[in-house]
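Thread title: Can someone regenerate the structure for this chain?

I was given the following input by a collaborator and told the matching structure tokens would be attached. They weren't. Posting the sequence so someone can regenerate them.
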Amino acid sequence: MRIVKNVSLSFALITAALGIRAQDKPAAKYTAEIKTITDKAVVKKALQTIIDLEPQTLSNHILLTEIPAPPYKESVRAEKYAAMLKDAGVDSVWIDNVGNVIGKRKGKGGKKTVVMEGHMDTVFPEGTDVKIVHKGDTLYAPGVCDDTRALAVVLTVVKALEKTGIETDADVLFIGTVGEEGQGDLRGVKNLFSEKGPGKIDSYIAIDGWESTHITHRALGSHRYRITFNGPGGHSSYNFGFANPHNALGRAIHYWSAGADSLSLLPGVRVTYNVGVIGGGTSVNSIPFESWMEVDMRSESPERVAGMDKLLQDAVQRALVEENKMKHSGNDLTVMVKLIGDRPSGGLDSTLPVIQRAMAVIRYEGGTPKLTEGSTNSNIPISKGIPAITIGVGGNAGNPHALKEWWVNDNGALAIQQALLILLSEAGIAK
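Best answer:
Regenerated them for you:
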């Protein structure tokens, strides 16, 4: 792939190069739209500005990566990011009631609102060393790509607009969200679409992952539970015969896995299941007083998720009944089933303008767009039928969610240029 430097190709040459047939009107329409945008001198200047800002983008990326943002503790990074958005030139900045950083850049028309965002939180617990390690041109650090790079991308898009004086027709909200990862359960973006949010949002562009040709327009929904069996506990010998929470948990895992595996093999939309964390007990010679697990199930299909969920509930209750029947003495076990994550499923028609525009931008810059599924902040607007996509931060990366996560600036400016063009096509350039 290449960075956009020459945007003077004729429309005829572009459509021929892309293999767009005359009857393929949607693709031709949006290719023409992107061509019109990139023909503007001010847009060419903005694209070059992104290249010129490369050192500053990298500096912002490193600075933000080295500010810890563990789950539910994003406030230090949020304060810094709010200041950086303000310095970049947005009209107003605030931190909302759950911790999202929101920067508003007013449009000339203001009849539409477009969001562009990256999430501030990482999966890593408090105390994790997030200092960048440089090995050649590669940056190593927890969260260096997922999703701190996106925050730097958003800042550079704002600066490119400000330095070139481009006004959009729509209002644009540039946002750093909280709670995208794990048990954050998308709480940041859920708040954006609640009554406490910034108001009506007409389209949504999330930046997450690194593949610059991927466009996520299908939401991989999930249910996550913490299941806890509780009992009296006791000495392994003196209280032998008491109901054992570990036994019940083991049965529940077995029954759910057996049923879930059969469901996952059925034809149709893919569905997955996983027991991710288990715990409980105090010593080898003690009957535990509690045993717990955290589980996850995912699918694009709400029906498949619901089916997997029912299998889990049935397995838990069966395990509870069986263990209580087997005890020789003592009180019955009880169980608590707590929903700790609910990401809605959904999908958008690929002919929607924001999706077609993103595809046209990627094609225009020489890439081949790939429509994908994912579990990202865009799950929420997608599930509500609001035009939304997730695009990548660019460059190259690996080991997400691992201590040796890495990112390398392999033509990283390309993805920022793409983000700018998608935003301008969606928000409109004011006349």
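Residues 24 and 321 are 60 Å apart (CA to CA).
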